[in-house]
Amino acid sequence: MILADSITFAYPGSAPLFLNFSFEVEEGGAWSIIGTSGCGKTTLLNLLAGLLRPSAGQVIIQGKELTRPRPRTGLVLQEYGLLPWATVRENTELGLRIRALYGPDSIHSPADEDLRDGTERVDFWLDRLGIDSVEHKYPHQVSGGQRQRTAIARTLVLNPDLLLMDEPFGALDLPTRIDLQNLTMQLRHEHNLATIIVTHNIEEAAFMGKEILVLIQHPHTNAYVVANAGAGAADYRHTLEFQDVCAQLGRMIGETDREVA
Question: Of 115, 135, 159, which residue is a domain's last?
């Protein structure tokens, strides 16, 4: 699915964050990326999204080198990115409207894109994410959890095969955060989505990543990956295995006081 092949990246005037760095994500994989602030988590996600390009090496997705954002990659941000003057439904439709302007050009829209079912897609995701009852409200009229569900719906309505998430639940209260973590893992399983979530929260990383990439100290030259087979299971948070993985992650990134999920 994804191969980061010996990538090197540095911001202008700065030392490299990644140096001959490689890792691989399988089809339908569930990954978390965790590390301390400034370690390069979001930078790596932007490299995988095609928003940044490595100075050496390459990112390969589905057998093709990534040279720009690809239409089958979905990106969900912490700050939602919703248009304040558009309703929940209009925000959910946004990507489809943009694709309709360009047509199936393989750049802005997949070559096999067919938008004749666009309305049905929007209806499905509004219902599946439980925001159909607020579809005619504006972002300022709904809760933070509903705004984040809208951002997720806007992404999933485009039928991605890869979902990248950058601290998507960090600003939400604990019950809402857990609810959306559970929902995301359900959707990953239902639609065979590959998911990669960047987080600074150890418990979130342990619940959402069947593989957890730990970024310790840059320049990153080796991929330190923690296997975590139980991730996503409904009762996983209450198991000894979950606690062991959290403790291991805490040791790896050098924290003494873990943030509670």
Answer: 159
8 Å CB contact between 209 and 197: yes
**Angle in degrees, CA 223, 196, 17, rounded to 5:** 40
186 sits in which H/E element: helix 174-191
Q: Give pLDDT, residue 80.
A: 80
Q: Measured between alpha carbons, how far is 48 from 74 in angstroms, rounded to an integer? A: 11
Question: Which residues touch 110 (CB under 8 Å, ≥6 apart)?
Answer: 71, 72, 104, 159
d(Cα 28, Cα 189) in Å, to the nearest integer? 8
Q: Is the full-model pTM beyond 0.85?
A: yes
Contact in structure between 195 and 31 (CB atoms under 8 Å): yes
Q: Are residues 216 and 240 in the same domain?
A: yes
In tens, the pLDDT along 4-30 reads 999 999 999 999 999 999 999 999 999
Looking at the fold, whether 208 and 260 belong to one and the same domain comes out as yes
End-to-end CA distance of the chain: 29
In single-letter form, the type of residue at position 9 comes to: F
Query: Across the chain, how many H-helices and E-strands are there?
Result: 7, 10
Which structural domain, as residue segments, surrounds residue 17? 1-72+163-261
Enter the DSSP assignment of 259. P
Domain count of the chain? Answer: 2
- CB atoms under 10 Å from CB of 208, counted, come to 26
Last residue of a domain, one of 106, 129, 159: 159
Residue 88 sits in the same domain as residue 127: yes
* Same domain flag for 146 and 176: no
- pLDDT band (50, 70, 90) for residue 260: very low
CA atoms 153, 155, 159, 162: torsion sign:
negative
DSSP H helices in 6-142 = 41-49, 88-102, 118-128
